Each structure stands twice: as C-alpha cells, then as structure tokens.
Amino acid sequence: MSSPKPNVGAPVAEMSFPVVGQDNTLTIGQSKDRWTMLFVYRGKHCPRCKRFLNKLNAVLGAWQEQMDVIVVSADTAEKAAADKAEFGWDFDLCYGMTEAQMRGLGLYVSTPLSEAETTGVFAEPGAFAIRPNGTLMLVDISNGPAALPDLEELLDGMIFNITNDRPERGTA
C-alpha cells in the first residue's frame, strides 16, 4: 500500500510525538510562532541515519536560529533513549511514530528484513518544512537512507525561503 504524495501548501495534519526523557510531546500541524523542520529517520537499526543525525547535531545551533527542529522515528522509547545516550544528541528525539502518521505524511513505509533489523514497520527518511501557520512548505522524502538531504544546502535554502517569503513550489 503506497502513501499519497504530501500536498505542499496545505495544512499538515496535527500529530504529536513523545520525547525521549521528557513527560511531554512535540506537535506539528498547529499554528505557532516559528517554522518547524521535521526530520523522520528509520530508527536505531540504521547506521546511515545515525551519521545523518550526528551531522545534524553538529550544526543544530544554526538550524535552531531559524526554526524548531523535531526528529522522530517509529522506534520504542527504549531504543530511542539508547541512541540518544550513545550519541549524546542535543536535539529533542521523538519516538513512537505510527504507521498512520507515516502514511499521513506521505512517507515510504518499510517492513523489516529480519528481526535483527527491527521488529515493526518503519518510515523511510523524510524532511518536512512547516510554516508557522501549520502548512507544508517543502518536503523531501526518500525510499531509503542512501538519499538523505545535504543539511548545509537544505538550511541555506530554507533561510532563503524564510527571508524572502517564497511560495511553495511543485504544486502542479
């Protein structure tokens, strides 16, 4: 079953994700004061995702000057907490993304190749820039971790888009 393509310019469905080590959730799809960048990663089993998130952590300050950053996977609280502890990431790490949430964002959804990989369905990588009004401005989805976005280029493009109040592209 494939997921529908995300509709840029449209409101993002409201979704909440629990945060590792906190008693709260982070929510997308609501109006707020700032832009949000949502990064979806495959989970603890993915070494490419770990390299990507290590790079994100290294440039996190520059990202947070421009927007809120949310990182989420379908991992359990225990798996996500183990990764946060091992890598020392400074960003809020969310977990427990449901298949319905994955499909609601138009992500590719995979089943594990074996229990050594992981035990449940998981989302393939995605990045979603959400305007303060809760609408989707930019989307980058992949069907595998070999095609993760370049964080420097993405941030540079987002600064340009925010500064110049650029419209959504690719709407036709």
Give the key terms.
172 residues, alpha/beta, Glutaredoxin, two-stranded antiparallel sheet, 5 helices
CATH superfamily: Glutaredoxin
State the separation between the terminal residues, measured CA to CA: 24 Å
CATH topology: Glutaredoxin
Q: How large is the radius of gyration?
A: 15 Å
Number of helices: 5
Query: Biggest sheet: strands, sense, closure?
Result: 5 strands, mixed
Assembly of the depicted chains:
single chain
CATH class: Alpha Beta
Helix/strand order, N-terminal first: EEEHHEHEHEEEEH
Stretches where pLDDT falls below 50 for ≥5 residues? none
Helix proportion: 25-40%
Q: Enumerate the strands of the largest sheet in spatial order, edge to edge or round the barrel.
A: 5-4-3-8-9
Shape: globular
Mean pLDDT across residues:
94
- Estimate the strand proportion: 15-25%
Please tell me the CATH architecture by its name: 3-Layer(aba) Sandwich
Class derived from helix and strand content: alpha/beta
